[in-house]
Each structure stands twice: as structure tokens, then as C-alpha cells.
Amino acid sequence: MNTEQKAALLKSVKTIKFSDNAIEKFSLTDDDFVYTDLATQKIKFKKQIYIPFSVEKNTHLKGLKLCVFRNTITKSFVVQYWFNKKANYYVLGKFIPGVFTTKHCSEKLFELVKSHTDNGLWVVDPVQTELDKKRLIP
What we know:
It is a single chain. The chain is of the alpha+beta class and about 140 residues long. The chain has a single domain (about 5-135), classed as 2-Layer Sandwich (Double Stranded RNA Binding Domain). It is built from 4 helices and 8 strands. It has a 4-stranded antiparallel β-sheet with strand order 3-4-5-6, covered by helices on one side. Strands 1-2 form a two-stranded antiparallel sheet. A two-stranded antiparallel ribbon has the order 7-8. The longest helix is centred in the C-terminal third of the chain and has 15 residues, at about 100-115. The radius of gyration is 17 Å and the shape is globular.
């Protein structure tokens, strides 16, 4: 299977089911991280790929994605959100079977959405909140 066929196959796989079993079975090869730079026509590699989960849009899981890194093949939960007309990512945690699973991710994201949104809109930036926690002395 050549690079173009793999790219077409990866584009056809648009979402992944939000379950521990589906995340454990999901794997990528180096060919999946390849893309062609249109300006220079050179083949380059992406550092990471974001794969959205197939979840309902009116739940707290809206914007949740699986981030797979090329070098380490680690899988992390990230949530993409809009704040001040910019798309941002907030890392919820690294997927470790038995330690940090979909249940833990869902609970953490529920608390985050409850404290940072109003009617589905982000009113407080979670990245800034995290920085303030580290900066302020208790």
C-alpha cells in the first residue's frame, strides 16, 4: 500500500468510538503522519494527529479528540475549544489502560465544562486557569 492510498484511508477514518477497547486497538504507522508540502512539493511528517471521537454534539464530550504522537506513539485526550475567536487545545491526560481511561477523561472533562462554560460557550480559558493555579501561591 503506497502513501497516497494510506492517506486516503486515514481520511476515510474520520472518527473513533469513545471506548477503552477502541482506543487500545487504534494504531497508526509512520505512513499515516506523512503529508506533502504544497509550496515546496516535499514530503514532510506531522508531529501528531488529532482524531475526533464519535460523540453527541450536545454533551460535555463535544470537541474531545485523541492526539497520537508520531515519535512515542502515545495517545492523549485533548479537548478543542473556541475562546476569544481562536481554536485552542487543552490536554486532559495521557491514555493509560487501567490508570487514565475514558471514564476518568469523561469525569475530568465534565468538571471542566461545568466550571468553564455557560450554555455551551467557553467563558473562561482552561489553559489560563491551569497557569494561574501554578503561578498563585496558596
